[in-house]
Design a protein that fits this description.
- By secondary structure, the protein is an alpha/beta fold.
- Helix content is 43%, strand content 15%.
- The chain contains 24 helices and 18 strands.
Length: 658
Amino acid sequence: MKNLWQNAEADACGNDLQLRVYSSRLLGRDKSLVLHGGGNTSVKMRQPDLFGSDEDVLHVKGSGWDLETIAEAGFAPVRLDHLKKLAQLPALADPEMVNQLVTHQTRAAAPVPSVEAILHAILPYRFVDHTHADAVVTVTNTADGEARIREIYGDKVVVVPYVMPGFDLARLCAQRFAAQSGPQTIGMVLLNHGIFSFGATAQESYERMIALVGLAEDYLRRHHAWDVALPQVPPAPAAAVARDLAQLRADISQLAGFPVVVARRTEGKFPAFARRPDVGTIAQQGPATPDHVIRTKRLPLVGRDVAAYAAAYRAYFAEHEPHAKERKTMLDAAPRVVLDAEFGLCAVGRTAQDAGIVADIYAHTIDIILGATALGGYRALPARDIFDVEYWDLEQAKLKKGGKPPAFAGEVALVTGAASGIGKACVEALMARGAAVVALDLQASIGTLSDKAAYLGIQCDVSDEAQLKAAIARGVEAFGGMDMLVLNAGIFPGGCKIEALPTADWQRVMRINLDANLVLMRECHPFLKLAPRGGRIVIIGSKNVPAPGPGAAAYSASKAALNQLARVAALEWGGDNIRINSLHPNAVFDTGIWTEEVLASRAKHYGLTVDEYKRNNVLKTEVTSRDVAELAAELCGPLFAKTTGAQIPVDGGNDRVI
């Protein structure tokens, strides 16, 4: 543990709520304490109401906020006296508890308070911090976890057995706190759940958390259960497993009922953990903390038998659903974590971001499993307790906050020539619709066009077959497969009549505009066949296909040949549920080759102003890269689900084409 508190930064905070934000962010920056919305913090403040009377208000982390990035708006202000009254009730159903929390806020626009708000309220401290510290959870997830916790902390903490979060947990904590706490108490450990610290100031509560977790880390080190080393295992090359990985994604998507991203992770501990002889035992106990279940499911799939995993999940549901307080509808039976000797770890999610969250959580779960195993054996909570959290309405609500998934959620697109112009606009249009995108370009800047989890930029010369194959394999490794191709990369050489056209120039244009696209289509065909919603290819052609001009023989011929290739592919691949359509743009001037000087020169040549030149078409409209990209994206969507082999002009109306 590292104490990140900086007095200069804290002094810049104007009040207790700002200090609460500051120390919460310090906790959130340490991934061994909290991950992706986990944990919660609070501060009790006395403040005037509308009538000038002072009232005590608990500002507690709102549901859906992440401690690492939380702001003042992320804390829900709830009247403290009412929370304390709620804690005295003999029972309180979850829906009514949430209703009471929300209706007794002092700010209508505030987020829904944490389900542990009542627990924060009953603790008699101004500041309260709660994390799911890896070190503490490692100790508690053992057969003698409670005894070990008492050995580590003595009377510094109150120890509470596992109870599902919510009203019952708050009541139990109040009872245990009254019975066990004393002047020496600085924290509370919830077995198989996490740890609380508290104090009179933000700094005191934060530093107590660091100290308490540090004691658990020291204990693990003394018992050789911290940073447990694994042998270095070289992962199987991406190209060698790409087709098998895509098949796994197809199987999981079919089981889930929607396309998923499958992110293969081969760094560090993942391959070695997946190849442990006992992985089928140690990885089949359950999650490190119950709240992880909504992201990772209770168990990972070990190996690739998706059907067997689904059967086991259905049996798990059938066993525990009859004991639920109200009837439950089974969620999809697809795994979210796959451990495979050849793949390493595969994280499954509806989006690339979701898959990344799963991978992060399981990376910490591996550390916890290894540490607990070194202490004598990892022991998670019984399946019944995990089921209750997985099917808890309040937890499921967290996943539903995003609303209806975007059109291309879980799908993967590859775009060439993606660093600028039409290609870049296609990347943006596809990502806006929820797709993960593999973007290829010769320009090195392609790697940094976006920092989103759904983007992978690869510098690649599309005329080099080896580079193309490697890029495809990297894309499949990152996202699990390939659903859409947008073939945009191309070159338009300077005007040259046929009698003066060098063979080398002709061949270069053909390599880039035609041959590269043949390779891409051929190499991606096995992946497109496995696309859950069918494969889609969009060819960015040219007005020169139906209406060529003089001085552009190589360009016009290459685009015409590509168009013919697309037509043949549409005929051959329809039976594989792959559709191929072409767009023929013209006069798209917001690209790198059209500088202001070039535009002015060409407009002058035709006796037009620049604006007239841009709109020199039947509709007198300007055609932009975004116009082409939006139609390219729509061609991949449901509106064109029954269209293949089409050629669509995007040119504002060209009299020669018409």
